[in-house]
Amino acid sequence: MAYFITVEGIDGAGKSTHLEFIQSYLNKKNIQNKLTREPGGTEIGEKLRQLLLHDDMDVGTETMMMFAARHEHLITVIQPALQSNISIICDRFTDASYAYQQGGKGIDKSFVKSLEELVHPNLTPDLTFLFDLDPDTAHSRISNERNLDKFEKQSSTFFNGVRKVYLELAKAHSRFHVIDSSQTIDQIQQVISKKLDELVK
Ligand code: TMP
């Protein structure tokens, strides 16, 4: 059995720390897996990521490019892995397009939905961890770190919109597990282990 696990959250909510933990959990259970990310995860996808994270563009262009990168990722990495019984841990997936392009930038939900139906009509994650944190705390966590990309430089109004859509998605889909990112790393890892125990049992 191969699992498709995605990890989401606003920038600065701390998901990166926990991606490797999820991978080491699967490794310990001898579940073959691959850790990958969006936008990116393929040669073309990583090139598109550079444009997406650093160049300003119309939000429609941005949304279609996210899905172009996703299409390449699905065809060349995600679907072949799942078909070969290799689980996927994906650092962001389509939920991020709803949260960022719809919730943050205000594109119509139907625009994202049409692309979702076109690009992956029959695939949804088995489990989605949503790292939730208030945007001001999240921003203070990243602002000292390095040169910020175009999304990380957005205002707290933008991130409130992103967070709102993420939380709406979490309410609507039982595959979501919301994690309060203000907890300690140990507390968070206990929650993740418990949820993964339920998934792989
Ligand atoms: P990250 O990999 O450092 O989290 O950065 C990826 C950025 O891209 C992040 O700010 C969220 C954004 N993004 C979107 O706006 N839409 C998407 O569909 C995806 C996958 C990411």
Automatic annotation (TrEMBL):
EC number per UniProt: 2.7.4.9
GO biological process, one term: dTDP biosynthetic process
Any one GO cellular component localisation term in the record: cytosol
Matching Pfam families: Thymidylate_kin (PF02223)
Positions with a binding annotation for ATP: G9, I10, D11, G12, A13, G14, K15, S16
InterPro entries associated with the record: P-loop_NTPase, Thymidylate_kin-like_dom, Thymidylate_kinase
Keywords: ATP-binding, Kinase, Nucleotide biosynthesis, Nucleotide-binding, Transferase
SUPFAM superfamilies the UniProt entry points to: P-loop containing nucleoside triphosphate hydrolases
Location of the Thymidylate kinase-like domain: 7-192
Gene Ontology molecular function, alphabetical: ATP binding; dTMP kinase activity
The reaction(s) this protein catalyses: dTMP + ATP = dTDP + ADP
Function: Phosphorylation of dTMP to form dTDP in both de novo and salvage pathways of dTTP synthesis.
Family affiliation: Belongs to the thymidylate kinase family.
UniProt protein name: Thymidylate kinase
Species, as recorded: beta proteobacterium KB13
